[in-house]
Amino acid sequence: MASIPPRRRGPPTARTSRRPGDGDAADGCHAQFDGVRDHDDAHGGGAGRARPVLEAVPFDDLSGSVVAVDAAVVQSADTLGTAYADATFEGATQVPVDDVVHGATALRERLESVDGPSYTYCYVSDLDSASHDYGTDSAAYHDALATATRALSRALYDDLDPATADETLLVVTADHGFVDFEPGPEGCLDVFSIDAVTESLARTSSGDPVRPWGDYRFLHLAVRDGAVDRACRALEAHGATVLTREGARDCGCFGPEAGPVFDRRCGDLVCTHPDLKLVYPSAESIVPKTGMHGGPTPREMVVPFAAARLSNLQ
Q1: What single DSSP character describes residue 178?
Q2: Fewest CB atoms within 10 Å of the CB: 80, 100, 163, 206?
Q3: Number of structural domains, the chain?
Q4: How far apart are CA 45 and CA 49, in angstroms?
C-alpha cells in the first residue's frame, strides 16, 4: 500500500509498461505457455468525480532534478531491522508494528505527520500466511482479510484528517497471486520419485544428484549431457509442463532479454505442473501447504491493482 501526497504544479504524468507477448513453443519439450493475455474490458467506476486519480502522481517534470520524497515502510516488527530489510528498504524509515490493527494506526499517524511529498509502503503479511497455510477459500483467509479491511477502513476512511486524505493517493496491490492445491502428499509431485528423472540428473562431486532449485511452482533441474529428452518425457508423462533452457529464454519467462544472470542460474530444464506442487526430498515443509504462487498460471501472475484519492473514499 502506498500513499503519495500530490504536488499540485503542472500536469499529471503517467508511466506505461509493456508486457511480453504470449509464449512460443519450447524447444525440445514442446511446452507452450499462453501467459496472461491483454484484454480490452473497460471497468467503470468513479463517474462524476472532479479529479482523475493520476493527478496525484508527484512527478510533474521527469526531465528535471530528482524530487526528494520522504519514504517509510510500515511492516511487522519481526520482518524489520534485519540485514535483508536494511538492504531492501535502504533510505526509508522503518516503522515496526505488532499486527494489522497497529499497522493501520501507524500508517494513519505517518500520513498525518509527514511534511512534504512522501511515499509510505505498508505490507499486510497475514493474508499471505493464511493463503499458504489454509488456501484462499478458507475461513482463516477470509477472517484475515476482514480484519485487515476493517482496520484500514477505520484508519484511512473514518479517522484520517480530511486535508491529508485530499492530498493522498491510495494504491492497493499484491506482489503475486495464489493458486490452491490439495494439502499433503496428494497435492505434490515428488520429482525424485520418477526414476527416469533421478537417473537423468547431473551429479555432484560426491556422486549425489544435484538438488533442484527455484520455486516449487517453477522448478529448475540440472541434467547430465544427453539426458534432457529422457527427463523431459518422464516429467510430461506425469502431467508436468517442461521447458528447456532455450525454451525458457525464448518464451520470455525470465524477461524479454535474458542475459548472463539467466545463463548462470537457469536449469537445463524448467518445469511446472497445473495441478501439483513440485517437491523433492528436502522440501518437506512445502508438502502440507495449500496455497502457492510462482507458476505461470493467470491466478498466480495476475494481481489486483486499485488506486484512488483517499478523499474520494471518505
Answers
A1: -
A2: 206
A3: 2
A4: 9
Amino acid found at 85: A
Question: Which range in 40-54, 55-69, 247-261 is most confidently predicted, on average pLDDT?
Answer: 247-261
Clarify whether residues 117 and 256 are in a common domain.
Answer: no
Q: Strands 213-215 and 169-173: what pairing?
A: unpaired
Domain housing 131: 2-16+36-178+301-312
Q: Residue 50: which residues within 8 A CB-CB, separation 6 or more?
A: none
The rounded mean pLDDT for the chain is 82
Using alpha carbons, select from 88, 74, 163 the residue that is nearest to residue 120. 74
How would residue 63 be classed by pLDDT, with cut points 50, 70 and 90?
low
- Give 252's pLDDT tier (boundaries 50, 70, 90): confident
- Percentage of the chain exceeding pLDDT 70: 79
226 contacts: CB under 8 Å, gap ≥ 6: none
Look up the pTM and report it. 0.71
What's the CA gap between 275 and 214, in Å, rounded?
18
3-state DSSP assignment of residue 297: coil
Query: Band of the pLDDT at 49, cuts 50, 70, 90?
Result: very low
As a 3-state breakdown, the chain gives helix, strand, coil percent values, each rounded to 5, of 35, 20, 45
C-alpha–C-alpha distance, residues 214 and 209, integer Å? 16
Task: Report the distance separating Cα 97 and Cα 151, nearest Å.
Answer: 13
Same domain for 210 and 109: no
The residue-averaged pLDDT of 111-120 equals: 94
